[in-house]
Design brief:
secreted; mainly beta; 11 helices; single chain; Ig-like domain-containing protein; seven-stranded antiparallel β-sheet; globular
Length: about 1300
């Protein structure tokens, strides 16, 4: 028997023996275990200071042994090559308590390698087999179901003792997929362990709101049949205690009991109901009363009617007089005199009781209405404004009533709330106003989407905010409604600044400007310089009155102080005026203009002298070339312009224009549809008019007009011949997309403006054959052929819409219903049965209709425009019109594989543009889009997609780019223009990281799209302006007129009027030449000799004349400076690059300069210097001057005239023979002697032979020449070149002989 005193020594001895065996197994050249059954490499997770635990995958395979473990292990491939060489010594057991005992679990296989791979996660295994895996396994073994070790499969796998085992399909080489694995875990033995804790016992106290004690217990048990003395005792306590508390004392009412019976049956009484207080303690009481009393029995007790009727007798309810035998006849019409059928007629005393309906002639008869007294009648009809009309009184027993109903119109916001900036404690007024029929009378205001309490703010259509707090900053908008619908205003942002906080950051922001090509800064070699700029954000300022709807010009953060600096360009100094300090100033308010040209959609024929309407007001006329210019008021939020052709050649086309309040001017190329040739139809029979006529395709639908449907404006039925013209804008023809009226939006019941997806639009024009009077129709059917609806889910939601020409918003006319009908009519060769959607409408005031569905699968597409193909973030263009055409989701037409469904345009800002589009999450190619960009009428070029797709150029990373299938318009045909691209609109998967960074954003993530950083994915356009450069000493961004700074050296002295001046320079020479204008102050004392700026432009080849080009060079116009005090005649130097010589000067220009002294000296033939003329000279002088309210427009017009060589024309093709001011000759230098590289290219054999002979002569070797070999040169150079080479060889030989003699 072992003595108890020797037991500790025995245990220590056994532990040391086990540890010694383990260490002996671990020693084999420092990194392998020396054991016949163990071949393994150890993971870096056991090495102190090593990398991540999963950097090298290691598995242990063993059978249960008593003292040693037979272990095998495979080295698995890892994705981190640097970890492959890591080795450490493996220690078999890590705790002396587990010496000699190991256990393996059973095999687990809870996943199969379908989908992404095979995942045997430890967390999932514990979920299914809670008691079969220990808390901290010491090793893991993995094998396939074919019993192949993981290390022998050649697959890339991962493991972790904390996470388990996993294999990912896409990581496997050669397209393999993962095997099906099962795993098991090695667990340390546990001889003595605690059982799970029991549940907490009850609290020792039962009184409410008291504190007591809870107890829970566990037991120590042994899992091994070992002697008691060898079983270690469990560590820890067998019981735990914690503090507990009972719920607080409560008192709660039971539900109310039922109401008791009323104390009376009529005339007014009372009834009672009761409830009981349920209390947890006598110390608390229920608030309120145990009983409630309610009035009841309010009906009148039977009494004698006291109504006295002068005629007839009281009605049963004693509410009005009824005259038996008396009749009321009514006639209800529209404002155009058309009878209104189906209108409801009711007495105003009982408005909910409909007494009768009007018949097809708009008439009704109502009996019992006394004629001796006036009675109020309420007339109601859907989509019309309700009216109340009084009957006329007489003594005949018969009375008449005539009512005219106007069409109901949804409300439309005409005055939107505007942005405000205020200090804390100030006040602000936000205004909102809407029109509609009936006029909206209820307004609601929202702050950050939350409805404001009307009782607290006492608002109507205006919202007054006083004693402003910081938390009142945010977004405000109003919502108004009438019987026809609701509308929301655009949001206004209120910014509240804490008192004492600076309204404007005095430190300027970084603003990099590009330096001239020949300016290289020493040291940095940078082509950019930080000139600084102010943020131009709005600030509070000092308003004369702060309670206006609009703060006038308002205040913005602007330039307070500038400083003069000199940029070191290496060979010269370049002056610049940099921003030193910013402060709050009155905002620069540029004149907002919308310009454009209206042309036919089929052949670009201009709409000459067309009428332009905004709302009901005519605001202008298009020019002879279809051009127009509109000045927009500063408070305009939505601009709806209607173009009407007085000659009736084109359909009336309402357009919703986007405009830019910062750049001042936006150019729109407007397309209008030519009217279909009118056909004669007989109004006395049913007429069928096809909608959509494309060769080889069936019509999309039909217009079915019943007999006797046409009427004149006075309501008279028209029976003569009708001239019918129905123009269909067919989505199967993509060229018609730009001619779509309105902006394809509608307003839902909540007042939000949402997009529509069109299946076709049509304009109707019915006229009297003789008088040409416009005719209306009664009920008309519209049939839509379901075979053209490629997305079947659109069929149930298809609706018929009409366009409100004043608001540009589409409004619902009717739903569609299914019908199978026999079709025929004009243009149909046979009659056949088809399934149609049928909608009903009446043609009254509106003449534009639409077959649309609301589409909720929406996204945003991020697009940016750049100054050049370098795509520099600092060279983004603002004011670019980006247009996106949504294409048909499925191919289905032989004439055009994909039809268009929507057309949208957005203006780029400082962070690009986000275009709304339809997208699909299931199929990447379900929707596609065609995207273009226009700046001032000039089409920008898209990033190329061929010959090789470059994600860095396109702006979208892989693999998302492949999914979007980006293709520029010239992808398959290089002869096509490069000004558009096509993409798949694949909705991003938010669980895929590669698709969460743009360029497609879910519709609810508009803010993420608008605020996306410039390095996020986006599509790109760039301006094709190679070899053009502009430098201003006072920096100014022409696409943001608010950046203008009042300074003597400002290129543009007036922010409201911009004068652009160009001079035409002709070049004789084989190559194009860079021409620079250097612009200095000339006569003004503040600017004399100081630089305004530099302009560089490369000459443009004249395609009609060989070896001739010309350049239109901008120069600083003479005139008043920003202080409007004195004229400065700018000193202009024109310098062509290279060896050029001035050979002629325009005689009229030379004469003008002599007659208007001072005259600049022109002693150098390679340049030309002049004091710029003050007068706006024309093409006869070679000077082109244009004044406009926008600098870009002024320059575009002047350049067009300069290219054309006229004072009123426009051309993009250079005409070097017309309107030239200066002519330079720039001949190409002749090569007098070929270089070694040129000789190797022309005659490599002879050149190499000559080189070999020269080398041998230098070494003193005599070479016997069998014949003279001559290197061929051009004839005019041969003699001179050979003589030079001979003399050179002679000098080399003399030098060699002298060296040998020495």
């Amino acid at each position: 028997m072992l003595e108890l005193t020797k037991l500790p020594l025995l245990l220590s001895f056994l532990a040391s023996v086990a540890l010694g065996q383990a260490k002996a197994l671990a020693v084999h050249k420092g990194n392998r275990i020396s054991h016949p059954h163990i071949q393994t490499r150890i993971s870096s997770k056991f090495r102190p200071g090593s990398g991540p635990r999963t950097s090298l995958m290691v598995f242990y395979f063993s059978h249960r042994l008593r003292h040693t473990s037979r272990m095998s292990m495979g080295l698995l491939r890892t994705r981190n090559p640097s970890d492959r060489s890591k080795r450490v010594v493996f220690n078999t057991f890590t705790d002396s308590q587990t010496t000699g005992v190991t256990e393996w679990t059973s095999w687990f296989n809870i996943d199969h390698p379908g989908g992404n791979g095979d995942y045997e996660r430890l967390e999932a295994i514990r979920f299914y087999y809670r008691e079969r895996v220990c808390a901290r396994p010491t090793a893991m073994e993995a094998r396939t179901t074919d019993w192949v070790a993981a290390a022998d499969t050649g697959e890339v796998v991962h493991s972790s003792l904390e996470k388990g085992f996993w294999c990912i399909n896409k990581e496997q080489p050669y397209g393999r997929v993962c095997s099906n694995y099962h795993v098991r875990f090695q667990c340390p033995p546990v001889q003595s362990y605690w059982t799970d804790w029991s549940e907490w016992g009850p609290c020792s106290t039962t009184a409410c709101n008291d504190v007591g004690i809870q107890v829970r217990q566990r037991k120590c048990v042994s899992a091994q049949p070992m002697p008691l003395l060898f079983v270690p005792a469990c560590i820890g306590h067998h019981a735990e205690r914690r503090e507990c508390s009972t719920p607080p004392c409560t008192a709660k009412w039971s539900p109310w009991g039922p109401w008791g019976s009323c104390s009376v049956t009529c005339g007014g009484g009372r009834r009672t109901r009761r409830r009981t207080c349920v209390r947890a303690s006598e110390m608390v009481q229920c608030p309120g009363r145990p009983a409630e009393v309610q009035k009841c029995g309010r009906s009148r007790c039977p009494t004698t009617c006291k109504l006295k009727c002068s005629e007839g007798q009281p009605s049963e309810d004693c509410s009005l007089c009824v005259c038996e035998g008396h009749m009321l006849f009514g006639d209800i019409q529209t404002v155009t005199g058309v009878p209104l059928a189906g209108a409801s007629v009711a007495l105003t005393s009982h408005p909910k009781v409909i007494r009768t309906l009007t018949d097809t002639k708009g008439q009704f008869t109502l009996s019992g209405v006394c004629s001796s007294t006036s009675t109020s009648i309420a007339i109601n009809k859907e989509k019309f404004v309700p009216v109340v009309v009084s009957t006329s009184s007489n003594a005949t027993g018969v009375s008449w009533l005539r009512a005219v109903l106007t069409s109901a119109e949804k409300p439309y916001i005409v005055k939107h709330p505007e942005d405000k900036v205020r200090y804390e404690g100030g006040r602000a007024l936000l205004c909102c106003s809407a029109t509609g029929s009936p006029a909206p009378d209820k307004y609601y205001w929202y702050h950050n989407g939350t409805l404001l309490d009307k009782n607290m703010y006492k608002y109507g259509n205006d919202l007054v905010l006083r004693d402003l707090k910081l938390e009142q900053s945010g977004e405000y908008y109003c919502k108004t409604s009438n019987a026809a619908g609701s509308i929301k205003s655009s949001p206004a942002h209120l910014t509240v600044i804490a008192n004492g906080s600076p309204a404007c950051n005095a430190t300027p922001e970084m603003h990099l400007i590009r330096l001239p090509m020949d300016c290289v800064q020493p040291g940095t070699h940078s082509k950019y310089y930080n000139a600084g700029r102010c943020s131009h954000k709005k600030c509070p300022g000092s308003l004369d009155f702060d309670m206006r709807c609009r703060d006038g010009a308002g205040f913005c953060c602007g330039v307070q102080e500038m400083e003069s600096r000199n940029i070191d360009c290496g060979t010269y100094k370049l002056p610049i005026r940099a921003v030193k300090q910013c402060s709050c100033h009155k905002c620069v308010q540029p004149t907002v203009l919308v310009r454009g040209r209206v042309v036919a959609a089929d052949n670009d024929e201009p709409l000459r002298f067309g009428h332009i309407y905004i709302g009901k007001d005519r605001v202008g006329t298009t020019g002879y070339q279809g051009g127009f210019t509109l000045q927009i008021t500063p408070d305009t939020q939505r601009l709806v312009v209607n173009f009407v052709d007085p000659s009736q050649t084109y359909i009336d086309t309402p357009k919703v224009f986007i405009f830019d309040k910062k750049s001042g001017s936006i150019y729109h190329n407007v397309k209008v549809m030519r009217k279909q040739t009118p056909v004669d139809i007989n109004p006395r029979e049913t007429n069928f008019i096809d909608l959509g006529e494309i060769k080889g395709e069936d019509p999309i639908g039909q217009l079915v007009i019943p007999p006797h449907s046409f009427h004149k404006d006075n309501g008279e039925i028209y029976e003569g011949t009708v001239k019918a013209s129905v123009t269909f804008i067919d989505p199967r023809n993509i060229t018609t997309a730009a001619a779509a009226p309105g902006d394809l939006n509608f307003v839902d019941e909540e007042g939000d403006m949402l997009p529509l997806r069109t299946y076709g639009m049509f304009s109707v024009d019915f006229r009297d054959e003789t008088s040409k009077e416009v005719l209306g129709t009664g009920a008309v059917q519209v049939l839509l052929d379901t075979q053209h609806v490629k997305m079947q889910e659109h069929i149930p939601t298809m609706k018929l819409w009409s366009l409100n020409p004043d608001t540009g918003v589409w409004e619902e006319e009717s739903d569609f219903s299914y019908s199978t009908t026999t079709t025929g009519g004009h243009g149909r060769s046979k009659r056949e049965e088809r399934t149609f959607l049928i909608g009903n409408m009446e043609i009254r005031e509106r003449r534009l209709f639409n077959l649309d569905v609301p589409e909720n699968r929406r996204c945003y597409v991020k697009v940016r425009a750049y100054m050049s193909e370098k795509f520099l973030p600092t060279e983004q263009l603002e004011g670019v019109v980006i247009s996106l055409i949504n294409l048909e989701p499925k191919p289905g037409y032989s004439s055009n594989p994909r039809a268009w469904g929507r057309f949208d345009s957005v203006l780029t800002g400082p962070n690009g543009a986000c275009l709304p589009a339809f997208c699909d999450a299931m199929r990447p190619d379900a929707y596609t889009a065609y995207v273009t960009a226009i700046l001032g009428g000039e089409e920008l070029e898209a990033a190329p997609s061929s010959p090789k797709m470059n994600p860095n150029i396109i702006g979208v990373s892989q693999p998302y780019l492949d999914k979007l299938d980006y293709q520029r318009s010239d992808h398959e045909d290089p002869a096509l223009k490069k000004t558009a691209f096509r993409i798949n609109l694949a909705k991003p998967n938010q669980n895929n990281f590669d698709e969460t960074n743009g360029p497609i954003y879910p519709y609810q993530n508009l803010l993420a799209c608008e605020n996306a950083p410039v390095d996020s994915n986006h599509f790109r356009f760039f301006r094709v302006e190679k070899d053009k450069y502009e430098y201003n000493v006072v920096p100014f961004e022409e696409n943001d007129l608010t950046t203008w700074t009042g300074d003597y050296l400002s290129w543009w002295p007036n922010p409201q009027e911009f004068r652009a001046c160009f001079i035409k320079v002709k070049i004789h020479g084989q190559k194009e030449v860079m021409v620079r204008s250097r612009n200095l102050g000339g006569t003004h004392p503040e600017t004399r000799g100081k630089l305004y700026g530099i302009r560089d432009i490369r000459s443009t080849r004249d395609m009609r004349e060989a070896n001739t080009s010309a350049a239109c060079v901008e120069f600083k116009c003479s005139g008043m400076l920003f202080d409007q005090a004195e004229v400065d005649r700018s000193l202009i130097s024109l310098i062509p690059q290279g060896s050029c010589r001035r050979i002629s000067t325009n005689g009229l220009l030379q004469e003008y300069l002599i007659k208007h002294p001072p005259v600049a000296q022109n002693n150098e033939s390679h340049a030309f210097t002049m004091l710029a003329p003050v007068d706006p000279l024309g093409h006869n002088y070679g000077i082109y001057t244009v004044t406009d309210q926008n600098p870009r427009v002024a320059k575009e017009i002047a350049i067009g005239r300069c290219f054309d060589g006229t004072s009123d024309g426009f051309s993009r093709e250079m005409k070097s023979d017309f309107g030239v001011a200066l002519t330079f000759s720039c001949p190409e230098k002749k090569i007098n002697r070929e270089s070694l590289f040129q000789r190797l290219q022309t005659n490599p054999g002879q050149t190499l032979s000559q080189m070999a002979r020269d080398m041998r002569e230098m070494e003193g070797l005599q070479v016997q020449r069998s014949s003279t070999q001559v290197v061929a040169f051009p004839s005019e150079q041969r003699g001179r070149t050979q003589s030079r080479r001979a003399s050179s060889a002679t000098r080399r030989r003399a030098s060699m002989r002298a060296q040998q003699r020495q």
